[in-house]
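To fix ideas, we close by showing one paired sequence and structure record:
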Amino acid sequence: MFQKLITTTAAGVTAVAMTASVAWAEVELTYSSWLPWSHPVNENIYIPWMDAIEAESEGRIKFNRLPKPVAAPPAHLDAVRTGQADVAFSVHGYTRNQFTPYLFGEFPFLGESAEATSVAFQRTHDKFMADLDLYKGVLVIGVNLHGPGQVHHSSKTMQTPADFEGQKFRTGGPIPLAIVEAWGGVSIRQPAPKSFEILSSGIADGILFVWESLPSFKITELVPYSTTMPGGWYNSSHYLVMNARAYDNLPDDLKAIIDKHSGEAYARMAGQGWDTINKWGYETALAAGNTVVEASPELQAALQELNTQFTADYIEAAKEFGVDGQEVIDFFMGEAKKAASSM
């Protein structure tokens, strides 16, 4: 009996020790970024997101920031899915056929604040897209927008659609490309890091970018003329994902910490980060003596006309996913107004 008690007690102590060991196990998650770690987007959004999780987990979750990206920017979704990295962000527009339901997030006139529009975008994702199974093999931490993109040029502001004729603009997503080409301009399709090279060499005359990107890519002095559009000429939607197996293998208390910093909490933080760095980019341009003007009523009306076609095209394309595009847009715009009024 006594020996049995000792054996039973020892087994219990071992079980408790093993349980404690599991409870306090340290988890390392690899994060791959296709932007340098010194880039303002990382310093103001993704590093603070990781820091918050590490702090709340008391170091039980640690992120290994890989010194080099494991894949090209458009391939980061697959890189997370296959476990080359545990966490990464990417852009819906990089695989636009897969993410057609999100393409309204690139439209003009979405709003002035990335925080408000990101919160609205997350709520729209939750209501309309979360059950579409578009992110196989990954957990969606959250989605966000980068704030209003503007037009920047090397020698002039834009006063009418005719001012775009013959001008060469570096464009990223499909909306900037469609705007430039609709008004007789030439689209230069090059990755964002090539911006300094193509502008300094005269390959491009201008660029469509958020304010942050001017100082980030060292082109503030190369495009000293900016034409702003209320609510933005365009926008861009992003997503942060985690490998599903890596998440599933976490103990419940660590999953809860990841969950706490996901969804709308993530979207709000990401939007605030973008607002901060876009303000920095704008103030940098003003300090450099750049000319900034608001688009004329003629330009605003012309872009509204283009946006009518963008909307019609989106509504038709979204049908293939069983999504009512007009309902999506109406819901998003309503939530953006709510979010802006509560800030």
User: Anything to note?
Assistant: The mean pLDDT is 93. The chain has two domains: 27-96+109-145+236-278, 150-234+285-341. The CA atoms of residues 161 and 302 lie 7 Å apart. The longest helix spans residues 263-287.
